[in-house]
Amino acid sequence: MSTAGLTAATPAGERRARPARDDAANRFLDAIVAGNRRRAFEVADAALAGGMEIRALYLDVFQPALREVGRLWQQNRITVADEHLATAITQAAMARLYERLFASATGSGPLMVAACAEGERHEVGLRMVCDILELEGWDTVFLGAAVPTADLVRMICERQPQVVALSASIAPNVPRVEEAIRAIRQGCGGRQPLIVVGGRPFAADPQLAPRLGADVTASDAAQAAERLKERFAA
Amino acid sequence: MSSSTRAGIGLHPALRAFPGAVLELAPDGVVLESNGFLERALGRAVAGQRLDGLLDDSSRLKLAEMLRRPAAPGEPPTAWELMLEGRDTLSPHAFYPVRSDDEGGDERLWLVECPRDPRFGAVHEELAAVNSEQAATQRQLAKEKARLGRALDELERELSENAVLGRQLQHQNEEMEAQNQELLAMTEELHSGQEQLMALNHQLQRRSRELQLALSARNRFYAAMSHELRTPVNAVMGYNDLLLASVYGPLNEQQELAIERSQRAAHHLRELVNDVLDLSRVESGRTVLEPERVELGALVDEVLGSLRPMAQAMGVELRLGPGDPVHIVSDRKQVRQVLVHLVSNAIRFGAGAPVFASVRAAREGGAQVEVVDGGPGIPPEDHLRIFDEFVQLARDENGDSTGIDGTGLGLPIARRLARLLGGDIDLSSTVGVGSTFRLTLPERIGVAPAQP
After folding, report:
1. Which has more confidence, B137 or B14?
2. Has this prediction a pTM greater than 0.95?
3. Residue B355 — φ and ψ, nearest 5°?
4. Does residue A12 sit at the B interface (CB-CB below 8 Å)?
5. Cβ of A118 under 8 Å from any chain B Cβ?
6. Following CA atoms B34, B22, B83, B115 in sequence, which dihedral angle do they give, to the nearest 10 degrees?
7. Which of A55, B77, B110, B389 has most Cβ atoms within 10 angstroms of its Cβ?
């Protein structure tokens, strides 16, 4: 299956400045859409061998490639099965980096517990936020997809994180996020964590996050990491 | 828009029983007809509503694209996956689009759902869940592994630090061991020194016992000898007296002179024997003290009186200084003997100058008796020796002619007696001016026998 080039939408100047990254992103996209796990890993390995950092690999290769997969599915050019496979391959590629990622992470910074809302299956975006913060020295616990609210609150009471991150990728899951926020606020009493929410519905409506009682929102992994770092810079 | 344009062509009866959704859409996306499948899935009515109102954002875009841009002729139909917002939202519904133009030119879009095996859908969901869980677990495991790795590094670092510490400790231990050895050696030296000391001590004790034996033997010898000597001396003196009394006929002048000399010599010899007897009695510890109340002034006066004939014979004046009566409890006989020795000593060695005696109460209790002579004085280096037995300082050879005579035992006996009485005698003297012997006596002596 042929795919649209990722560079098509970017201005010419920026393209010249980041040819290696765009090239890697394109080749990674081709590999995951074709369901070729081995080639996808090779692309990631080659990028790292060429001096690319893990953070750049996440933000400039994995994230745009997955966005493009979503767009291709929207355009009806790939099926949901193709999309799932592409996502699974990307997750596996991320998992292969963990040894390096956690070895360079100190985990001495703030603690963040991250979870997808009940019923929410789209977890890669939140996972990227966790991994990037981990690179910044944070300690993160990623609970994965579709976390039952009661379990999440129990976990937060136990670990007492400074930050709780919640995500919803589609509008119907937003009420689950709202429920989770309410349960956390009630369950935590005096030690309220900072609550950050993310996902497509929050990017589409900037007023949604404050309406639900969240403290921070962001439109992508890089912005989320940046805003949380700002909050805890002092 | 007329109601006829809102009406669908109508579903073929066969499609009503189709196991998936079948929808007929107007070009603006309004649902004209539905086989009822979607109503059941979403739990609400669909007909007469725009389909994009049921879709999520991305599916809405997808539908708009499809309605705007018909498939090119000859292009194989592609299934659409539309995410429906309703009770069932997560699994997309795949539709085949079918276009038709009726006679009026109205375009109709038929959406026919590709029916799926519900079992396949369930497995798919299951796999997705497993995949998600696996990914989260993998991440947590990798994180734990990294954490453990760091802990292990820390542990290794500590271990190597411990090894360094261990070496330092061992070094210190060795040093302490060496010090310990030194201490042990020193202890052994001390022990052997102690043993030598103990051996010496034993020797000393043995010597001491031997000396005591020798001393008591000497004292016994003195006592025995004195008794044995006194008898013949008394006999000599007796016969001398008889001769001088002309019991055996008159003596001529020369004979009388010779007998007088013999008598003086015999007298001296008896004095010597008496002193030696006294000394040995004091030394042997056989003296038993008999305490009684004594007025010292009177006692001194009495002693001076008894010695006055001897003093007058030598042209020496005896004087008692003024003073209040001083009472002590002591052994009168022994105190008297001490005073006799001191005063007669002063008479003998006072070079004819007057001898002064005085009594006063001592400041710290008890009494002091001072006997002052105007003799040649005693140089400081002889102050201790003067109390040794048989010492007479500057004893000259013409002892006979001056009548200065003594046994050399007077002061030693006096001091021993004074100490026996709990007191002492000391001496201050200036050469060429005279000497002062000071007897101090305690206020009271006990009845316990005193040590020699």
Report:
1. B137
2. no
3. -110, 125
4. no
5. no
6. 140
7. B110
Domains assigned to chain A:
6-104 (1.10.1240.10), 111-231 (3.40.50.280)
Nearest chain A residue to B131 by CA distance is A88
Q: Tell if the CB–CB gap between B83 and A170 is shorter than 8 Å.
A: yes
* Sequence ranges of the domains in chain B: 3-115, 117-286, 287-441
* Predicted local confidence at residue B91, as pLDDT: 60
Closest C-alpha to B37, from B29, B46, B28? B46
Q: Extract the tokens encoding B129.
A: 């869940």
Which one of A121, A134, A170 has the shortest CB-CB distance to B56?
A170
Q: How many CA atoms does the CB half-sphere of B191 hold within 13 Å?
A: 6
Predicted local confidence at residue B371, as pLDDT:
92
Chain A nearest-CA residue for B65: A75
pLDDT band per the 50, 70, 90 thresholds, residue B174:
very high
Of A91, A105, A171, the CB nearest to B135: A91
Give B294 or B285, the one with higher predicted confidence. B294
Q: Domain B117-286 classified CATH 1.10.287.130?
A: yes
Give the pLDDT confidence of B334-366 residue by residue, as tens digits: 899 899 989 988 988 888 888 999 998 887 788
Output the six-digit token pair for B68. Answer: 């705007």
Residue A165 pLDDT more than 50? yes
Between the alpha carbon of residue A94 and those of residues A39, A132, A219, the distances in Å are 14, 11, 21
